[in-house]
Specification:
By secondary structure, this protein is mainly α. The chain has 13 helices and 6 strands.
Length: 411
């Protein structure tokens, strides 16, 4: 029997999403590799004049739109709650901002109002929603749940090895058992494995949040969208700006409007990353701490007396990020093993179903149980019963089978 590896596939998807979340913020330092003297990009015989003072600032500007766009896209695709749709305006703004930096549009307002801008955004949103409803629909249905105590208990692997070895012996000696005896043996193995899964980790369905929580998060995301436009209402050329008795300085930027633009972009990213971290049910949610830490430091750094921003000074927070990466590596190792356990458990269930199916040819009394099982299995996704009601139905049915076949035994 081939192993159904749906949980290992789920684990691989987790890793593929976790890695870019960790690494995307570090792409910002690519701008340090570009020239501060040249104001054009040359690639073979092609020369592109971007209009910025130098290449370093041009690349930095591009990355300030591209990195949050990547993070927002992953966030949108992995969130199940309805407030995710409030991320779409932010995604659109970052797309237009990126294209404006490339001089495709004269300004963000021009890009939003132009026919070409609307067409580009329509295609981008269509592709995003399409990926959301197809590729990621199955991914979001269930997630791994890890009890904290399982982090410090090394016994899980030893227990699994014992169970696996015992099952291997039973399968080798299958010809020595009657069909009912074999079913009894593998059923008890399945019960023991299920106990280990419940003890050291579980699989849960992702549930939507309450309407009140969704409303609060939606308001927060709307505020982030409003913050985006604030810098455009600040007059250019001011070195100081008084608001309600509080003075905002330019802190080394050309003027206050540019300073507010910089901190507003960092603040917007911090807002949606914090929402994402607090609401994510996935085990790899700690990867979101990497951009939160880096953007938080960059936000604080903007008000300090330094010569360069988003530069070598950020190395101060690298030890914390390295610690986060180490924790994630440890978690990923544990999750890989648990994914194998879940697949092993599913394989056992499939084998039990096959054996029960073969029994109906030998024992007439089993036919009614098998028909009842197929009916429950077929209707479980379409009926109006609550989860608790179905759990009660399944538990009663399990007890009926136990009594019929006398399955339960000490492991």
């Amino acid at each position: 029997m081939s192993l159904n590896s749906k949980w290992e596939t789920k684990y691989k998807w987790d890793i593929c999403l976790m890695i870019p979340v960790i690494l995307l913020p570090f792409i910002i330092y690519i701008h340090l590799l570009f020239s501060r003297e040249k104001n054009f990009i040359q690639f073979f015989n092609f020369t592109y004049y971007h209009g910025f003072i130098n290449n370093e600032i041009f690349i930095w500007s591009l990355l300030n739109f591209l990195i949050p766009l990547g993070l927002l896209t992953i966030m949108y695709l992995t969130v199940i709650n309805r407030w995710k749709y409030f991320l779409i305006p932010l995604i659109c703004l970052y797309i237009i901002g990126f294209l404006t930096t490339l001089n495709y549009f004269t300004s963000i307002q021009n890009g939003i109002n132009s026919k070409m801008g609307i067409l580009i955004l329509f295609l981008a949103v269509f592709l995003l929603v399409f990926a959301d409803k197809t590729l990621f629909k199955t991914y979001r249905r269930r997630f791994f749940s890890l009890p904290i105590k399982s982090f410090f208990d090394p016994g899980i692997k030893n227990h699994f090895d014992v169970i696996s070895e015992k099952l291997s012996i039973i399968r080798k000696e299958r010809n020595n058992y009657t069909t009912q005896q074999y079913l009894k043996n593998i059923y008890n193995i399945k019960l023991r494995l299920f106990y280990e899964i419940k003890k050291y980790g579980n699989v849960k369905a992702i549930k939507s949040q309450s309407k009140f929580n969704e409303f609060i998060i939606a308001i927060i995301l709307i505020m982030a969208i409003i913050i985006w436009f604030i810098p455009y209402y600040v007059p250019n050329g001011l070195q100081y700006l008084n608001i309600g008795g509080y003075t905002i300085k330019s802190y080394g930027f050309n003027d206050v409007s540019l300073y507010i633009w910089f901190i507003s972009r960092k603040l917007i990213v911090l807002i949606f990353l914090t929402v994402w971290y607090l609401t994510s049910p996935h085990w790899w949610k700690f990867a979101i701490l990497s951009p939160i830490i880096l953007y938080g430091y960059q936000f604080w750094e903007a008000a300090q007396d330094i010569s360069y921003i988003d530069s070598q000074g950020n190395i101060n927070v690298f030890p914390i990020i390295v610690l986060v990466i180490f924790i994630l590596m440890s978690l990923s190792k544990m999750m890989k093993f648990r994914a194998h356990m879940f697949d092993y458990h599913d394989e056992l269930i499939e084998e039990i179903e096959e054996v029960i199916g073969s029994l109906i040819n030998d024992e007439v009394s089993m036919k009614e149980f098998y028909k009842k099982y197929e009916k429950i299995k077929g209707n479980i996704l379409y009926a109006n019963n609550s989860n608790k009601q179905y759990l009660k139905i399944l538990m009663n049915f399990e007890n009926e089978i136990d009594e019929q076949l006398n399955l339960k035994n000490n492991f």
